[in-house]
Amino acid sequence: MDECSPSSLEGDPSEEDAKPFDFKRQASPTWDNDEDADSDYQAKPTKKKAKKSSNTSRSSTSKAKAQDKGKGKLKQKRGKKIVDPDEEEDKPKKKVVLAKQVYWKDIPNWGDRTDCPLLQLPGDVLDMCFGLKSGLGVRDYVALAGVSRYFRHHFTPDIFHSICWSKGVSHVSTLHTTARQIDKPETPSLANHIFSRNVDDWKTARPSKIYNYGNPIHYIPEGPREVWSEAQYIVYKEEQSKWMENERKTQIKSIRETLEEQMKEDKKKKAWAIVGAHSRKVLATVKGREDGEPAIDRDEHGLPVKVKKVVDQSDTTSERAEIEDQVQTNKKKGKKRSGRLTNNKRWTVPDTDTEKEYEILPQQYVNNGERLIYDHWPNEWRCLAVKWINNKRINKTEAMRVYKVTESELLCLKHVLVTNPMSRKIPQQAFLEAAVEALAWRSHGGVEGHKQYIRARAIQTQKLAQNRRDRIEKAQRDGTYVYKHKRRYVSPYDWWRRDFVYDFYGSCESDCEACARENGSDYDW
Question: In which residue ranges is the amino acid composition biased (Basic and acidic residues) (predicted)?
Answer without folding.
Answer: 16-25, 311-323
